[in-house]
Design brief:
heterodimer, A: alpha+beta, Porin, 10-stranded antiparallel beta barrel, 4 helices, 57% strand, elongated, B: mainly alpha, Cytochrome Bc1 Complex, Chain D, domain 2, 17 helices, 7 strands
Chain lengths: 257, 394
């Protein structure tokens, strides 16, 4: 569907040489909606190691500058002997995450610049299959607030945000024969959860009505980055995708009427 | 709209509560049902022991390789090794005659088998199988591979296990009975499934599992190893030697010199595998009662010869010799000092050029030095290692 530029792909591979992660950050949702009843949906795709990530985002403004939104992320990959594989017995990484939230935008003097404050909550599951039926299953809950700074030009759209998240792993079911390093990371995670962490994201897009072509990047940030790697967290999600302004269609329809 | 916002608020509150909870991970290796079955009978660790054998540098550097051991099979082997159900009267396991606290040897000259029958030879110390059964290069089961039992009749640890299980003085089972006994114990199914992916018990896989456990028994943490590691071996005379042993006392060093001059040509200077597979060491003038290796091979010059053991953990494995005739190391040293008999097949290393027995004629100080050195071969870690301990709940 989308071709990922080689440098981004290499960045992903370089940053993430292993495909079994206990957490991968979902992309930040920074909707550029302002008017009442505006809505948008977005789809993003990226790669982490040998796994593909798909992020789906939806947002709706029930009143001017107030947005409710929902996000879904899925990471899936099968690989064997260091290569992608369709073999059902191959090792598998499978994550799903769903959240919902709401936020408010404040316009600066130059109306193209906005400050948004969002808050949301979500649930996720992480399944890692290490082959030979050695599996770890985790679930987690996440609460976050996300201040963002947005620029909405005629063509260029850009946003930067930082999600302060409380990440709490709940129940886990872990085959103890998973590789020892993964076992250690799971033990560490169990011991230290819930975690407070920061996920910083950038969204840059080019708007050609009604579609915005975007690059969306999120990275776990902060001084504890090594710690997150010890937890076997994937610290980056680099994806590209499109946003479709749904209100374009019903505005057009109402104009016709 | 209000309803939506209210629902979102309630959802967020519930998540906020759940986000403050501690994680609760359930670690399993076997299925829940299998875990319950195993926990009823066995004390197995949360995570299986690795049973990975790594020879110390001073042995690996001369091209010795340990026999391979797979942890699931070794875990199963550990249970089989300690299981008394594998004997005719349910009173004897492999561990009955190979006690962990004395380096998997027995403290009597002749161990007791089923129905309190006396076995015919002294129990061999297994506490360093990984060392003495190590092999050079590709010669895993080749002609120079180390053999088992005092008469070397078993080619592998698996064959050795079969020998003990079916010996009428030891465990007195047929292999069919062993297979049936294993099949009937509820705790074996999960272990076999992990090790082999099924529970079709056969003689071969029972023996292979025991061999995987026994081959993982290694003594690498002796004072000797501490001092030998990092020093590259040099070939001196007819044995590998290591210098300097700075952590050794003066007495231990003198003992090692005596050992290298008089004993290493058979038992090896590096404490890897013995140099000779078998020898006669002049215990008796004749050995009609027990011909050892010769009784198996029928070869006249092998009559009265016996396996040359490793001396690792020798201070723990009394009594000594194939018939347990010597109760202490002092008695053993006395034998080599003045007691060697002129057996027709006496080892050449124990003969003078005129064919008479070579008595070492050691002084009291030399004997004490030799014993000091032999104590440096003790590895206390394997005596307490949980990986090799009895897994049964008694």
């Amino acid at each position: 569907m989308f071709r990922i530029p080689a440098f981004i792909f290499l960045l992903c591979i370089g940053a993430t040489s292993c495909a079994h992660y206990n957490y991968t950050p979902a992309l930040l949702n920074t909707p550029y909606l302002t008017g009442k009843n505006e809505s948008t949906i977005s789809g993003y795709m990226g790669e982490v190691g040998f796994s593909g990530i798909f992020d789906f985002q939806a947002a709706y403004n029930p009143v001017k500058d107030v947005t409710v939104f929902a996000n879904f992320m899925r990471l899936k990959g099968r690989y064997q002997n260091g290569a992608l594989s369709d073999d059902p017995a191959a090792e598998l990484a499978f994550h799903r995450y769903l959240d919902a939230g709401a936020g408010y935008k404040l316009h600066l003097e130059d109306q193209r610049f906005m400050i948004g404050l969002y808050a949301g909550a979500g649930k996720g599951v992480v399944k890692n299959d290490y082959g030979s039926k050695h599996v770890s299953n985790l679930d987690f809950n996440k609460l976050y607030i996300q201040p963002s700074f947005l620029f909405k030009g005629e063509v260029l759209r850009a946003a930067i945000g930082c999600r302060a998240s409380q990440l709490a792993f709940g129940r886990g079911s872990i085959d103890i024969a998973v590789p020892y390093k993964d076992y250690v990371s799971l033990k560490l995670l169990e011991q230290n959860s819930p975690l407070l962490m920061f996920e910083t994201g950038i969204n840059i897009g080019l708007y050609f009505e009604p579609i915005t072509w975007s690059l969306n990047v999120v990275r776990i940030t902060g001084s504890d980055i090594d710690e997150y790697q010890d937890y076997r967290f994937d610290t980056d999600n680099v994806s590209i995708g499109i946003n479709l302004d749904l209100h374009y269609f019903y505005k057009k329809k109402s104009k016709k009427n | 709209m209000k309803k939506t916002l209210f629902s979102l608020g309630v959802f967020s509150m519930l998540l906020a509560l759940s986000c403050s909870k501690k994680a609760d991970f359930d670690y399993y290796y076997y299925s829940e049902e299998d875990t319950k079955t195993l926990e009823k009978y066995l004390k197995l660790p949360e995570r299986p022991f690795p049973y990975t054998v790594e020879l110390p540098q001073h042995l690996s550097s001369i091209g010795l390789f340990p026999r391979p051991s797979e942890f699931n099979k070794a875990t199963l082997g550990r249970v089989l090794f300690y299981d008394k159900n594998l004997s005719k009267d349910g009173t004897v396991s492999c561990a009955s005659c190979h006690k962990q606290e004395i380096a998997f040897s027995d403290d009597v000259a002749y161990s007791r088998g089923v129905y309190d029958r006396s076995t015919s030879r002294n129990s061999f110390a297994l506490g360093s199988v990984a060392n003495f059964s190590a092999y050079y290069g590709t010669d895993l089961n080749g002609s120079s591979a180390i053999r088992f039992f005092w008469d070397n009749r078993a080619e592998t640890a698996a064959d050795q296990s079969r020998g003990s299980l079916t010996n009428h003085l030891e465990m007195d089972m047929t292999m069919e009975q062993v297979v049936a006994a294993v099949t009937n114990q509820p705790y074996y199914e999960p272990l076999f499934k992990k090790a082999y992916g099924h529970f079709n018990v056969t003689e071969d896989i029972v023996l292979e599992s025991i061999a995987n456990f026994v081959n993982a028994m290694g003594s690498f943490n002796s004072k000797f190893d501490e001092n030998a590691n990092g020093n590259y071996p040099t070939y001196s005379g007819n044995a590998f030697v290591f210098t300097p042993f700075n952590g050794f006392s003066a007495s231990e060093k003198r003992g090692m010199e005596l050992y290298n001059a008089n004993c290493a040509s058979c038992h090896s200077g590096n404490m890897g595998r013995p140099v000779l597979n078998y020898a006669n060491n002049g215990l008796d003038l004749s050995t009609e009662a027990d011909q050892g290796v010769g009784a198996i091979s029928g070869i006249s010059y092998e009559m009265g010869t016996f396996k040359v053991p490793t001396l690792r953990n020798v201070a723990l494995s009394a009594p000594y010799m194939h018939d347990g005739r010597f109760e202490t190391l002092e008695e053993v040293i006395d034998h080599y000092s003045t007691g060697i008999k002129a057996h027709p097949n006496l080892s050449l290393d124990l003969k003078n050029s005129n064919g008479t027995p070579k008595q070492l004629n050691l002084t009291a100080q030399q004997k004490a030095d030799m014993i000091s050195f032999l104590h440096t071969l003790t590895d206390n870690e394997i005596l307490q290692a949980e990986a090799f301990s009895d897994p049964f709940k008694h």
